[in-house]
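Hey, resending since the last one bounced:
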Amino acid sequence: MPVMLTTQHYFLQIMTEEYEHRYFDRKSSEWKIEDFLNECDIEEFDHKMGIYIRSLKSIAKSGEGVRKEQAQRLLNRYREASIRAFA
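The C-alpha cells again:
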C-alpha cells in the first residue's frame, strides 16, 4: 500500500534536502517573490516562504554565474527586509 505524504511531511522532506522549486527553472531575471507566491501550489504561507528561501539557498550554493548571483541577491534582500520588519 503506498504511503500518502501530508503537506507537513512533504515540507519537512524538502527542508532537510537541497531543493529547487520548479519555479526557478525560468530565467533568473524573471524571478519575483510575488510570482512565486502566486504560482506555488502549497497553501500555507510559511511553507511557501520556506520553500522559496530553501530554493534560493540551494541555487546560491550550487548554481553558477548569473543564476547564482541572482539567488544570492534575492536572499540578501529577504534578510534585509526581515531585519527591518522585526527591528
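Confidence is low (pLDDT under 50) at residues 1-5.

Sorry for the duplicate.
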